[in-house]
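Researcher: Structure prediction, please.
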Amino acid sequence: MSFIDCVNNRNSILMEGALGERLKREYRLVFDEDVVMAGLVYSDNGRRALKELWSEYAKIAGIYHLPFLATTPTRRTNQERVGRSKFDSTIIHENVKFLREVQELQDVEMYIGGLVGCKGDAFTGEDALDLESSKDFHEWEVRLFAEAGVDFLYAALFPNVEEAAGMALAIEKYKIPYIISFTIKKDGCLIDGTRISDAIKYIDSLTANKPVCYMTNCVHPRIVYEALLQPFNNNEMVHNRFKGIQVNTSALSYAELDNSKDLKVAEPTEIAVDTVKLREISPFQIFGGCCGTDGRHMSEIAKRI
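Model: Predicted structure follows.
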């Protein structure tokens, strides 16, 4: 089954839980200054840790008979950052290759995504790109992921609609299925103030190869619940196109979390109940975890979906 067939035919899909915070706190791994987690693929400890985390999440998906989505840890692996690092463009191929190797060890329906991110700060929108600049800037990593043969691309933590739209235009050239995931606030808008409904309408209108769906990540489900209940988002278009979340276990705002020195963690059952509650207002399909989550949280979510 292809990734597109999976999304079209499965009501519930499990996405990986947190990687970054767990790699730092549980495995004491130090990330590269420029490409962050993507450099871990070159170390034995990094590969072992990534394999263990992905395998843990894949096992949970298997227990509950759910398809599983995993993405390369490459959100910061763009041309600018790779160019000033000690690595070269093969880093994208090596990350995809390693995740494929992990996939072959799993007894579950699993799809491999290439993770791409915005140029600047995902939580403030600082250094965000306009439409044309974004298309030109992101084409480099998109092309490399296409050559590496990922099942889909996951454009995560986009705070402004123009850069997200430029990324979509860069991706559609290569005809890869892709998901756009926004950073959103409880007022129902992206960080740049664009309403979720308007962002979806804008990107869909610009692209022939539209995103498979839209998501949000690194946000507490209660914030998303409130955002989607805003009158301008509570409509058929948003319900049909906004289909997933990677949950943060803290209900604090991005600004509050940015200044926090410790990891905010909610109880697994509590976060699972809040997450699945999103289905009361919209037919959410893809459920994953972000900061604060681990296998316990993903098990409770998987059990409920």
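Model: The mean pLDDT is 95.
Researcher: Thanks, that helps.
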